[in-house]
Task: structure prediction
Amino acid sequence: MKEYARFLWRCFRISFVGDWRYYTWMLVLTVIAFLGLNAYCKQLVHGLVTTGMTDQVSWGLYIANFTFLVGMAAAAVMLVIPVYIYRRRELHHLVIFGELLAVASIIMCLLFVNVDLGRPDRFMHIFWRFNFPISMLTWDVVALGGYLLLNIHICGYLIYCDYMRRKPSPAFYIPFVFVAIAWAISIHTVTAFLYVGLGGRPFWNSAIIAPRFLASAFAAGPAFIILTLQVIRKTTRYHVPNEALDLLRHVVTVALTINMFLLGCELFTEFYSDSTHIVSTRYLYFGLHDHHAAVDYHALVPWVWTAVAFNTVALLVLFSPLRRRLAAFNVACVLMIVGIWIEKGMGLIIPAFVPSPLGEIVEYAPTVNETLVCLGIWAFGLLIYTIFVRISVPVLSGRLTVDREYVPAATEEMTASALH
Amino acid sequence: MTTESGGASPSVTRRSFLRGTLGAASGLAAFAAALSPLKDLDTEDYTLEKFLQKHYKEMTPAEMDEVLARIRSEVEQRHGLRPDIRDVKPKDGVEFVYALHLGRCIGCRKCVHACVEENNQSRSPEIQYIRVLEMPRGSVDIERGNHHYDRPTVPDEDHYYMPIQCHQCANPPCVKVCPVEATWQEPDGITVIDYDWCIGCRYCEAACPYWARRFNFTEPKYARDREGNVIMNPNMSYLSNRPRKQGVMEKCHFCLHRTREGRMPACLEVCPVGARKFGNILDPESEVSQILRTKHVFVLKQEVGTLPRFFYYFDEDYPRSEKISEILPSSEPGGAR
Result:
């Protein structure tokens, strides 16, 4: 126990040590997080009127980001599956970076849900009268909470074992790994069911949403991990093998292909049938014309076509010889992360509210305050993910262990570069 | 923060110590600055007493009395009038149903205004439970309705009018989705909200196919007379028209503080053409029972399976048009969207 406290203390300390790039990065994130906190305090005082949401479009950027981040969290399994099911043991350590991303993403998810509440002070009501299993939102609370605990346990245990220089006992984590795989699929499915289960919203009321959620998540999540691994490789001496990037490239290629295929299925069903139910889809892709007021509405059109273009370009890169060039591949990763963020956010949440169930067209645009809150949460999430990685890299590479007081990374790296 | 890491390290220097202290201090200052908007928070809204208040269904009569007394004094303090606030319970053997005669409605929106006054809705931002659509003849597709028709006189000959409010569904999707059971269906069929339990997630608003729910995006502001006094209906009940707070949902509750005591809803009383009918469906002699038995009634969006308790009917005087071609969709000025 005392040893564990010392481990936590050392983790805490190491998170304040780094070179100038680390400090700059952390300072920038902290400043943005504080700006977000400030914006949120304003929202607490004045209410959600500080956002662009209305009774017509009652969910906006918060729920959009939440949906995207659930996907990021679920994507951790795309590293876990090859390692544990196909026994690619050499990539064992990399799983931890994926699961740490899951932990950070879930924390961001919880923050996004919380800032969306009109009465966050009553959050505890969910524990006193839990409408389970009727409300899908309670399922989501269970799914996200469970997934958070599972991942904290798995990576916490593995990192601590490495720190103690002892072999992790399989009984303590292998069963949890397999539960986590199933759980990861469930968090995104349950999140899709939040929307899919609403009969009054034809745009969401479609069975394809859950599979599409998973496909797009398994593209965007691993793409983010690919970028993270390269940052780790660049800034630390931690060895990230090329096979890891190759493996993840296969994952994102397959996932993005499936996602684009499902998108095609969806668009065909909607536009070929051409019933009045497609009015939200039409709004999303082409905009709507209000005959009574003689006004055109097309706020989402540029967004969704950007997403389509980004994802298509990413897919083309992945299928061309360019994919072997790291720079082009990285561009593809960034494009698909942004593309899928738009698709899951502006492209999935907002159009379901336009037009309203009574056919009224009210458009949504996020306010500055709302955007600041979102940026703040993202900055906070990246901040904790950076700290997680900052702690785990020296532990996993054996530079911080129970019997080795670590040498500040900055000093060590300076010496290392001096030697070159 | 950094201080401690420097202090524990063997290579502590005055410089690193100073740097750490400075870092920690500026961090704390920035944190305090970030939190500064909270000084304007309405602290009366966040008392321990309110924090510990139980769910409506769990309160004993004594606890309810205490809460009602607190609300009474709060309304008095904030709005300067003494309300008659009760917890009006449903009656046995009663299930309320609404029927609306579309052939009679002239689209004057008097019901909308009566509702706002009766139920103490916010005037800024405006909250209204009833939305009247101006519909092209020959269509019941509400997506063709005009929400913002603005005519010097109503009704317009080429249109009919369709008021829409909460349908008090027998299978309400809004109740199903609420994560905290802050909204439920009462034995007399009215779906109510405990404004003191709602967490403001707006999932019910997303679930409702009739757009019947409204959210308090900010602290509601009430009507005032010339002297600046708040104009408010003092006849209140816990589950209906007592003042709401920022951050919670509200909706039509069939004026339960009136109807459970044998009166008619405000929207019905004000209707100049008698298009609105309300009553107990379990009583075979009631007007609504007769309407449902004898008229060609229909419900909105039957396909979503919500089983509304709000019925529409045209009666025999529809279509008013002489020529059938006038009600064909092709002759419609707007055309399909």
Residues 14-35 of chain B form the longest helix (22 residues). The two ends of chain B are 61 Å apart (CA to CA). Chain B has ten helices and twelve strands.
